[in-house]
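Incident log, structure service

09:12 report received: a user says their structure output differs between two submissions of the same chain.
09:20 pulled the input from the user's history:
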Amino acid sequence: MSENFHYSYSAEKQNEIEAIRKKYLPREEQEDKLEQLRRLDAGVTTPGTIAAMALGIVSALVFGVGMCCFLVWNRFALGALLCVAGVVGMLAAPWLYRRLVEKRKQQIAPEILRLSDELSRK
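09:34 re-ran on a clean worker, output below:
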């Protein structure tokens, strides 16, 4: 009887297995300090970007409806009100972004400084 040993190695399978395994490890074990620093740095601007983009998009849509009121439906008072509200919202979006980023920087700064000090000493 002939018993042959057959072994196949796939780097892609090993990478997939490792990626799945990392999802279930505790956060401290799977993330080194540099990755944690990158994640914190990205987390500073993300909430501000999302909020400012949402406000800007909604405001542009409100402005567009206001223009439709003017040009299509002959509702001048409603159109003026919606256009002004849309413009105010669009002008407020960059201010909202800056405000949220500054607030988030103040919250996360001590942790980022601590991690960057640890990494620069190694």
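09:41 both user submissions now match this output. Likely a transient worker issue. Closing.
09:42 reviewer note: Residues 76-121 form the longest helix (46 residues). The chain is about 85% helix and 0% strand.
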